[in-house]
Design goal:
It holds the Pfam family eIF-5a. The chain is mostly beta strands. 6% of the residues lie in helices and 51% in strands. The chain folds into 2 domains: 66 residues, SH3 type barrels; 73 residues, Beta Barrel (OB fold (Dihydrolipoamide Acetyltransferase, E2P)).
């Protein structure tokens, strides 16, 4: 191989970073996050049983799926590890909403993000459809978990 040859690598990977991390079940609390049945969830209730004749205290988790709102439950020994998702939130300015419901958001670097449909939150969709045509400047708070994204909240920052 000569010195004049250049190699260009394009990578869309996330450097091997995991989408979840392990956490001991006994340390997960209400309003925390957990993966149940391969779905990212927010914990709404935790109860712990005493140790029984088989020696393990058990944690009973009641959680709500972050994206579809379904209630899920799981029982895990308190000393075992559970998967906890990495949850990130980012604010984007709303630029436009298409007739089929897709929103166009402005990212920090000036590009547009056009692949989000605020279907999971009826309130968000109503706020967008009410406020945007009236000239309100809206900021969408986008939650990203395990490769899924959804607008989870809107802020009105005044008229355009």
């Amino acid at each position: 191989m000569s010195d004049s040859e250049e190699h260009h690598f394009e990578s869309k990977a996330d450097a091997g970073a995991s989408k979840t991390y392990p956490q001991q079940a006994g340390t997960i609390r209400k309003n925390g996050h957990i993966v149940i049945k391969n779905r990212p969830c927010k914990v709404v209730e935790v109860s712990t049983s005493k140790t029984g004749k088989h020696g393990h205290a058990k944690c009973h988790f009641v959680a709500i799926d972050i994206f579809n709102g379904k209630k899920l439950e799981d029982i895990v020994p308190s000393s075992h590890n559970c998967d906890v998702p990495h949850v990130s939130r980012t604010d984007y300015q709303l630029i436009d909403i298409s007739e089929n419901g897709f929103v166009s958001l402005l990212t920090e670097n000036g590009n547009t993000k056009d692949d989000l449909l605020p279907t999971g939150r009826a309130l968000c969709l109503l706020q967008i459809k009410d406020g945007f045509p009236k000239g309100k400047d809206l900021i969408g708070n986008v939650m990203s978990v395990r490769g899924e994204e959804q607008i989870c909240a809107l802020k009105d920052i005044g008229p355009k």
